[in-house]
Write a structure and sequence with these properties.
FAD/NAD(P)-binding domain; 2 domains; 5-stranded parallel β-sheet; 11 helices; about 25% helix; about 20% strand; globular; binds flavin-adenine dinucleotide
Length: about 425
């Protein structure tokens, strides 16, 4: 059943669609602007409601709060908003359709097309912050959130939180943590890694295939990023591209019969896991060829089981299946370690690529920031997210630390409105 691709809650009449802008040209680094604005920033007081992180999650919350009349300051460690999207590889497009990826109160222009480019995401986030006149302070890295045990800790107009930055501490009534699920690049500590004589980089440092043309490259990890980088390398002229796979992924088409995988995910979200697993198995048989002969058997565990248990979002195909079938991307076993210039694999073989690109994901990196507050689970996840606050931590919110089947931008938009309403109720 086709699902209309609309934002989760109706965008209000006042939401405007901006005039179309052409595909953005590369922009100069905004550092100079940020420096020029720094002095003026210093003169402005910070609001009592602080949002940490100027990505889509933080901006969406700030916009929703601002629209409710709650003065809010966004603290962003980098020189501009949307810094994660500035760093992603050039080829990247949203896998979620534009209409299911817009943030509250400001639409993405239809000229962006259905699958929005990385550059357009950056442009949208800039325009979004400007449209809502958000108070964003760039170059402000938050080191830690603590309880305020000093002045104004309790009572009427209390400011129970102390937000520590390199430039000093700010007291706050409300803190929203939006530093990103994909915060700290993760590089497994393989034996021999430090002494590896080839080139080794994390996927977060990969921008485009130019530097790898004519070279033999191993991509480690077959998530969306690894698969897409492998295809990019092939198209960019790498001599040989292999991809190391530990657990065969679920592969879905980005869109089937005009219905996006995300729309199907939204529909399936509250269906029992076993049912979704069964339906997705049927869907895979109908839409994705059997790649067993190429080293990618169909996964044993169900699609939704893997999302819920392992946080493993299915791979959305944007050229990977064709590349595997054509033999331009070769599947190999997962690495177990390095020896000189060799990469040892878990099937007992060794290979000697010139470059290893590790697409093994990220860590949330919340321990340093809020680890002392008793608001994280043993594996470093916030105990609560969205409009809820953990016991004993009123006014401390988290957004963006889940990995939903229904699309993250969409969830960030929903969370933003809910958090703003929750903050509004306690104001
Ligand atoms: C490659 C890739 C593709 C994706 N594609 C999609 C997609 O198609 N559709 C979808 O819905 N989702 C997608 N996502 C998932 C998700 O929507 C994005 O990661 C999104 O950017 C998350 O927004 P965020 O604001 O939570 O985090 P981020 O965008 O990571 O923003 C966090 C911000 O916080 C700042 N920050 C971090 N630490 C601090 C600190 N201590 N002090 C101050 N500032 C700090 C960072 O500089 C950054 O600007 C994708 C993710 C990745 C990695």
């Amino acid at each position: 059943m086709p699902v209309p691709e609309r934002v989760p809650e109706p965008v209000s009449e006042r939401d405007s669609e901006p005039a179309p802008r052409p595909e953005p040209a590369p922009r100069p680094e905004p550092a100079a602007d940020a420096a020029a604005n720094a002095a003026a920033d210093d003169a402005r007081p910070f609001a009592d409601t602080l949002v940490i992180g100027g990505g889509p999650g933080g901006l969406a919350v700030a916009a929703a709060l601002t629209r409710l009349g709650i003065a809010t300051t966004v603290l962003e460690r980098d020189d501009a908003v949307g810094s994660s999207w500035r760093r992603h590889y050039e080829r990247l497009h949203l896998h979620t359709p534009r209409r299911l990826s817009q943030l509250p109160g400001y639409r993405m222009p239809s000229s962006y097309g259905r699958w929005v480019s990385r550059a357009h995401v950056v442009e949208y986030l800039e325009d979004y912050a400007a449209h809502h006149r958000l108070d964003v302070r760039t170059g402000v890295k938050v080191l830690q959130v603590e309880r305020n045990d000093g002045p104004r800790a309790y009572g009427k107009g209390a400011l129970p939180w102390l937000v520590r930055t390199a430039d000093g501490s700010r007291r706050a009534r409300t803190v929203v943590v939006a530093t990103g699920h994909n915060h700290t690049p993760y590089l497994p500590d393989w034996p021999g890694r430090e002494a590896y004589t080839g080139e080794l980089l994390h996927a977060s440092d990969y921008r485009e295939p130019g530097p790898f043309a004519g070279r033999d490259v191993l991509v480690v990890g077959v998530g969306n990023t690894g698969a897409e980088i492998a295809v990019d390398l092939v198209e960019g002229g790498a001599r040989r591209v292999r991809i190391a796979v530990r657990t065969p992924p679920h592969i879905v088409r980005r869109s089937v019969g005009g219905v996006s995988a995300q729309a199907t995910g939204i529909l399936m979200r509250h269906v029992p896991t076993a049912v979704v697993d069964r339906l997705s198995r049927i869907n895979a048989r109908l839409t994705v060829p059997d790649l067993s002969a190429y080293g990618l058997p169909r996964p044993v565990d169900g699609l939704y089981t893997r999302i819920k248990r392992d946080d493993a979002i299915p791979l959305q195909d944007v050229g990977f299946i064709d590349a595997v079938v054509a033999g331009t991307v070769e599947v190999v076993a997962a690495p177990t370690g390095f020896s000189g210039g060799d990469v040892r694999l878990c099937d007992g073989t060794s290979i000697d690529p010139e470059v290893v690109i590790v697409a093994a994901g990220y860590r949330r990196g919340l321990d340093d920031l809020v680890g002392d507050l008793g608001v994280l689970s043993a594996d470093g996840r916030p105990l609560v997210h969205g409009p809820h606050c953990a016991a004993g931590a009123p006014g401390l919110y988290f957004t963006g630390y889940t990995n939903p089947i229904s699309g993250m931008f969409r969830e960030l938009a929903i969370d933003a409105r809910r958090i703003a309403r929750a903050v509004g109720r306690t104001s």
